[in-house]
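Researcher: Quick sanity check before group meeting.
Model: Go ahead. Protein one:
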Amino acid sequence: MSPLPDQADLISLRQDALSIFQAGIAAADPYQAVKRHLAPKLLDAYSKVHLIAFGKAACAMVKAASEIIPAEKLAGRGIAVTNYENVTGVDKVDVIGAAHPLPDAAGLKAAQIIAERVRSAQQHELVLVLVSGGGSALIPYPADQITLQEKIATTDLLLTSGATINQINCVRKHLSQLKGGGLARMAAPADLHAFILSDVLGDDLSAIASGPTVADDSTYADAIEVFKAKGIWEQVPANVRQHLEQGKQGYIAETPKPGDEVFKNTGHILVGSNAISINALLDAAKNRGYETELYSDHLCGEAREEAEKLARHAKALIINKPIALLAGGETTVNLKGNGRGGRNQEMALAFAIAAKQHGLTGNWTFLSGGTDGLDGPTDAAGGIVDPNTINRMTQAGVNPLELLENNDSYTALKTSDDLMNTGATGTNVADLQILLIRPQP
């Protein structure tokens, strides 16, 4: 019979996991990222700079840029659009709050303001665009024949279908006037330069905020196939289906493709990413005396299935010294129930269940969290569980497996006091996972 987990050791492990997670957040600090990369000499060739920021890190990024750009160079006040939780005042910048993950009317108005500003840019002027995760939802600008409500319904349909972020972005690009290179098309003949904080695995620039400043190699036909592959094409609003069909038939212009003339005066710099944050996790864990293993730098798939795989992997390890298994990525959840939660909370709950089922020994703690501090439509960043999690739930009178089946990970983790609440972090580079294990004496 395995010895019972040491409570003091579990508390220590939990503190370490939270500290390591914070190191990953710090590595994605958007303010410092812009400060590192925006050289004043970049601005010398331009008579005016139009400063535009959107995404969950917009306020921090635009604050750094506004401190570097000389006041006389600014073409009016800057514009920053971010989710309501991340709104903070910035000198010389109009900050607009909007909804995420489902867009709202405030986001539509903000998108229209951005489009008007960008279209006003002239030759020898620079449109400086600061892009971070969440931008797709925050600046919705539907194609002319599509209403905002139809776009919201379409986005909601995709989110609940288990579609990947790349599939969702493919559709968004073909329903929008800004995404998929649309913003770059509006900026011509001015130069456009984008600083991009990536929340997309592999850092595909065309996928981050649905690629408003870069070429798009996907098509209307691809967007239609996303819905058909998920079996939800007939549930899509009629106007959206008609728009996509007309685009497929060539009646509506495609998004600008690689090599298009609109990109001859554009440039991009990747200033932060999930990969950079994973490296920070590795360093932080090593500094705390853990042997480290990069479990995955591209963790995707169904959250509960990935949790099961990780638990099996950990069970097979021979643990004779403290070890940290680290990962980054963005899993998905195929909603079947009506509970509350997010992919990180679901993964944490599923891991606690799988670890108990497979008899994972040793003192361990598992953390799965969103770097933006918000996991799904909840106030939690994710979850952090240990060998006693399931017992705490059952003693409180809840059935963790039933709650998992109802996609109600928030209730389960709240019951066991295993929610991780960081508040909005002001950045967004996808998710991070940390599994710490110490051998039992």
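Researcher: Fine. The other one?
Model: Protein two, sequence then structure:
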Amino acid sequence: MKNKIKIGLIGLGTVGSGVFKTLKNFDNIEIAKIAVKNINKPRNIEGLDNSLLTDNPCEIVKNPDIDIVVELIGGLEPAFDLIAEALKNGKHIVTANKELLAKRGEEIFAIAEKYNKVILYEAAIAGGIPIIMPVKTILAGNKINHIEAIVNGTTNYILTKMDVESAQYADVLKEAQKLGYAEADPTGDVEGFDAAYKIATLASITFNKRIKIENVYREGITKIRAEDMKSANDLGYKIKLIASAHLNNNGEADVRVHPMLVSKKSTLAHIDYVTNAVSLSGHPVGSITLSGPGAGEFPTASSVVGDILAIAAELNTSDYILPMMRCRHSEDAVMVNIEDTINKYYISINAHNNKGVIGKIGTICANHDISLASIVQRCVSDDNTADITVITELVKEENMRNAIKLIEADGNKVNSLIRVQV
């Protein structure tokens, strides 16, 4: 009988538990050791042999019998050191660690290549949605130049609930925290860090150029209001947190995360609650969208186990396994500064209901080379202020920011400035 492939699992949280339960269905795979923070913590996992547990991950990364190390603890440390040590000790790696890949991917892939080992990370981008393997294999013949994605279930859940229930952000966030969709400290999700890590990695793979995370523009959802949701709907849009990456004709990369008014005709407008989706555009494939569960025990475990099996199938077949899945980019992308980008904008302004106020706003915009697609005054409040909603045509970001300063200097309050899908 063929020897079993031995796995070392670092982390037995939600995803780790799903991986353990799923791997029980495969006769050729054996989990040899599991590193956890607390060995004595009660775990309701059927079939778990507590003798497999250790609180010393070095027992995994230095164990000569283990073939594949699966890292599921997240964060930079100790994950980086553990993966680096595992590679040096001849282990292939499967990880779901988007932060590590975005911040220290260049280092970790260099170590992997030095020791002729593979790092697979399908679960790090969109949970259960297969995207890395398709991009590196079946879509390898394409020139992909545009990505738009919803890759954070927490923010998508919050925005969907705000839309459906006409609720304010703070109220929905509290509900999401009670349900476990949002962390006690939700900063990583709601401020767009999580999505930024994911789009930086996905764009690096797709464009075959390294995207530095510090050059990814990031804006979260904390300023989105119920009033913006209603206005967007009236105008034919939904508001989503979009992670996007675009490669222009000069080979420069525009990579960012921010809220966006997405046309109701777009597929992404109908990706709701915790569902994720990734849309790719290129030649010759055209445009495709992959959607599904972006997080959770078994959806994410699906991607992790898929990576494990991909490596397991190649072990002992070649001196250089899975060449298509290895890091092949060494060039840093030239990045486009957000101020130099061209966008359409939704602007919500609270202005004193004086004669000529709309004309003044229009003049400020015209003086900054901003054409208006629509401008609507919605209501007058008891304090004699009016809510004015503006949609612009395409305009340079720098011009838009300068116009906003003058609109506010004229005594108006800009409640919201949100980019619009083109």
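Researcher: One line on it for the slide.
Model: The chain is about 35% helix and 25% strand.
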